[in-house]
Amino acid sequence: MRRLILTGTGPAGGKGIDQVGAVSWPLMVKGLLTLRDPKTYLFFTSTAHGRQAAKAFLARLRERKADRDNGPTPSAFLRQLKAIKAWGQQAPQDLGGIRIPVLIANGDNDIMVPTVNSHEMARRIPGSQLVIYKDAGHGGIFQYHGEFVPKALAFLND
After folding, report:
1. What is the torsional sign of CA 46, 47, 48, 53?
2. Nearest-CA neighbor of 57 among 76, 38, 33?
3. Domain at 4-157, CATH from 3.40.50.1820, 1.20.1050.10, 1.20.1300.10, 3.40.50.300
4. Domain segments of the chain as ranges
5. Per-residue confidence (pLDDT) for residue 72, from 0 to 100
């Protein structure tokens, strides 16, 4: 049986998804001005716990020395923002026809793809499972990787 895991995402036409650029640009500028990786502000909450999680996540990213993925090019990043905005501007679609097991995970304070969209998908996809991590943002699965990875593996192997 096939299974689907959705993290930090939302349905077409979801609340606030079309505002991803308006939310992201100021935080990327903040990253430049503070000499911090913008992921600190984009993926994590601004609480002490969120800042600590961002620091730990960025350290884990630096652990891999060989065969690292390249970051997105500026043009690819702009195309991604354009595609997300278009997705957010679409009419909502019926998700009731999804008949495979679905696990939806997000942080409770995702500012890029607002968390309300995770709840909405869970409501609209029959039998889906929803996991919301406390004091976490768009990078909730990175922040709670110790809990998420076993949960995802168990879900996939169920």
Report:
1. negative
2. 38
3. 3.40.50.1820
4. 4-157
5. 85
C-alpha span between 9 and 119 (Å, rounded): 11
Whether residue 70 contacts residue 63, with contact meaning beta carbons closer than 8 Å, is answered with no
pLDDT of the residue at 113: 96
Question: What is the Rg, in whole angstroms, of the alpha carbon atoms belonging to the chain?
Answer: 16
Cα–Cα dist 134/158, whole Å? 25
Any idea what the Cα angle at residue 71 is, between residues 7 and 5, rounded to 5°? 15
Q: Which range (35-39, 61-65, 142-146) has the least confidence?
A: 61-65
Contact 101, 1 (CB under 8 A): yes
Token readout for 88 is 């957010």
How far is it, in rounded angstroms, from Cα 84 to Cα 79? 9
- pLDDT at position 56: 97
Type of residue found at 33: L
Q: Is 129 helix (H, G, I), strand (E, B) or coil?
A: strand
Instruction: Report whether 114 contacts 82 (CB < 8 A).
Output: no
